[in-house]
Amino acid sequence: MEHKYSTAANEVEVLRQSLGNARSDSSLLHRESELVVTNVNQWVKEQKQGNEKLNFKIKDQSKNIIHLTAEE
Q1: How far apart are CA 23 and CA 17, in angstroms?
Q2: pTM of the model
Q3: Whole-angstrom Cα distance, residue 26 to residue 15?
Q4: Containing H/E element for 1?
Q5: Residue ranges of E strands in 1-72
Q6: Which PANTHER family match (predicted)?
């Protein structure tokens, strides 16, 4: 009986440690996921700003072309 109790107590301790490790891994994964989302959001923001600048340049060039064509 004592042997069974000791074995069960050891198994419980192993399971406790495994649960603690899983929780720790889960927390780490959650933090890393948040960093990925933050980085993706920053990248999207930068892409949007770049596209807006490019759009402005294209519109400006189109206006210049219209003026040049009108002068001919």
Answers
A1: 10
A2: 0.61
A3: 16
A4: none
A5: none
A6: POLYAMINE-MODULATED FACTOR 1-BINDING PROTEIN 1 (PTHR18881:SF2), POLYAMINE-MODULATED FACTOR 1-BINDING PROTEIN 1-RELATED (PTHR18881)
